[in-house]
Amino acid sequence: MSDTLDFRRIPWSPFLLALPAVVVFFGFLLAPLLSTAILSLQAFSLYTGIQNVYNLANYIEIFSDNYFFEIFARTARIAVLTTVLAIVVGAPEAYILMRMRAPWRGLFLLVALGPLLISVVSRTLGWALLFGSNGLINETLMALGLVESPVALMYTEFAVVIALTHVLMPFMIISVMVTLQRLNPQIENASLSLGASGFTTLRRVVIPQMVPGILAGSIIVFAMAASAFATPQIIGGRRLKVIATLVYDEFLYSLNWPLGAALAMLLFAAVIGVTVGCNALAERYFARIYR
Amino acid sequence: MRGRNGFWALAFHTLFVIFVLAPIAVVCLIAFTPESYLAMPTNGFSLRWFEALLDNRDFVTSFQTSLMLGLLSASAAALVAIPASIAIVRYRFPGRLFLLTLCMSPLMIPSIVLGVAFLRYLSQIGLGSTMPGLILSHVIIILPFILRTVMNSFGSLDPALDNAAASLGSSPWTTFRRVTFPLIVPGVVSGWILAFITSFDEVTMTIFIASPGLTTLPVRLMLYIEDSIDPLVAAVSAVLIALAVLTMLIIDRLFGLDKILIGNIDSDKNS
Question: Which terminus of chain A is more solvent-facing, meaning fewer CB atoms within 10 Å of its CB: N or C?
Fold first, then answer.
């Protein structure tokens, strides 16, 4: 054996290796979040700005004002609908992709997942161009004689949900494919060879095995949809605010930073709450099944 | 899982492909319009909006800022993530799980919350509207991507290789440089690329901390769209889409896009 220094014999070496990460994350993640939490407790006045008075007034204002309740409800509605749509479209598509052969699977995987590499602003712009009053959808509808005048699509919840589904779809497909690729394809064949129809096999064998992936994907899609900014800002505009765009307005236009910080903290808490809660529920559910 | 897709499955798949590609195709087509307003290029193709783009100092400058920011923050994140992943994968120490959770946590925190947090904090510490401030905030959000790919590449590595090198008399640093590092290079490179793309495309957090003098391309595009949607933004987006497709093809050639995003799909060869 050599008598040179072995990394693993130095007791403090893991701490030394982790030090840069710890410094960066304490200094530039935990500290800013803490600073924002404190900011959300501060008072604000139009004339003197942020004051050194600390109370829960911002939170009380948010919870007692119907205006904020409406925006929270809208955000939740958009996030739920986007998640449902992502499941309905993404789960079957993941299954179809898994069943494809080379070279088709590789090609369509690029189509399904590639949009992740394109800026969300560009992808949303595409929907804005499609949804516009002289956009492709309205032109087609009018050319077919289905409608007389352009249908208002921009600035509607429907349009925001469609565009968000498009933006977040790859995450659902990835989650479901991760689950599907762990499956043994012989289970499906076993079901078929034991006389189950294709539909029964799908319903009783394939779909139950996809559930963990669908749940994981749903949690990601819901969390990202609830806190999405660029898509609701472009498609929903000022007329259809969600929490994220409201936070943006409070910070950059109303300049009421403490109120914006309180809204951001509530969004943060809601997203973490739903994510952790769903994970716990899912774990308990699967613990019961696989007991 | 290797059955054939039936007629309905393929019909569904066709609609899905149209849904995915339609908005992207529309942007690319309108970018080539010869008109001065948003219109499909029905009267021939024109490059006038791409010329207008090259003449637009704002977009060109913010493109350079985005490139620089992506390069610097992805590299800085790699320098932080590589030692951290060695610590997490190769050692058992108190606080190991906390370190892992801490480093992965930015994936769970909404970007809008981070934007708000950095807007306030960076100006408090005197880094508001500066490149170092932008880099630090981007390092936080892209580090999880590098950490994950590097940890994955360690996972498939035999620790006995280190011991072999050490027992043959190589110092820890030499062992790392000559044995370990070359084996985790694919993980580092794919993580770096994902991190670069994430930094380059980030808009929600960056819109809070960018300033008129220091703005990234997606933020500039976003602010422009808030004002007006014209063929110029379609041209910018078409360039971004072309770059993304190019990157995608390169990644796919080097590593396989599916392997980076999903893990190894063809690992089910046990059947």
Answer: C
A–B interface: beta-carbon pairs under 8 A? 300
Strands (E), chain A: 42-45, 49-54
Share of chain B above pLDDT 70, in %: 96
Rounded Cα gap, residues B156 and B81, in angstroms: 18
Classify residue B155 by burial, with Cβ atoms within 10 Å: 0-12, 13-18, 19+.
exposed
Taken in order of first residue, the domains within chain B and their CATH numbers are: 60-261 (1.10.3720.10)
pLDDT digit string (tens) for A201-212? Answer: 888 888 888 999
A282 compared with B138, residue with greater pLDDT: B138
How far, in Å, CA of A85 to CA of A92, rounded? 11
Task: Find the residue in A nearest to B239 (Cα).
Answer: A122
Report the CATH fold assignment for A65-289: MetI-like fold (1.10.3720)
Cis geometry, peptide bond prior to residue A208 (ω within 30 degrees of 0):
no
A75 close to A270: Cβ distance less than 8 angstroms: no
Q: What are phi and psi of B83, to 5 degrees?
A: -60, -40
Using the beta-carbon criterion (under 8 Å), do B237 and A15 form an inter-chain contact?
A: no
| CA dist., res. B39 & res. A172, Å (int) | 33
DSSP A204: I
- Give residue for tokens 């087609």: A140
- So what's the pLDDT on residue A2? 41
Contact residues, chain B, for A275 at CB < 8 Å: 108
Question: Which chain A residue is nearest to residue B242, measuring alpha carbons?
Answer: A118
CA A122 to chain centre: 18
d(CA A134, CA B163): 68
The label of the residue with tokens 């969300």 reads A120
What are the angstrom distances between the C-alpha of B47 and each of A135, A179, B21, B53? 21, 45, 22, 10
Nearest CB neighbour to B258, from listed A109, A136, A169: A109
- The alpha-carbon gap from A73 to the nearest alpha carbon of chain B, in Å, equals 18
Q: What is the pTM of this model?
A: 0.91
Q: Do A36 and B13 count as a contact with CB atoms less than 8 A apart?
A: no
Query: What does the radius of gyration of chain B's CA atoms come to, in whole angstroms?
Result: 23
Domain ranges of chain A: 65-289
Chain center to CA of B12: 30
Q: In 3D, which of A55, A238, A99, A242 has the Cα closest to residue A164?
A: A242
Can you tell me the ipTM of this complex? 0.90
Tokens at residue A184, please? 């043994």
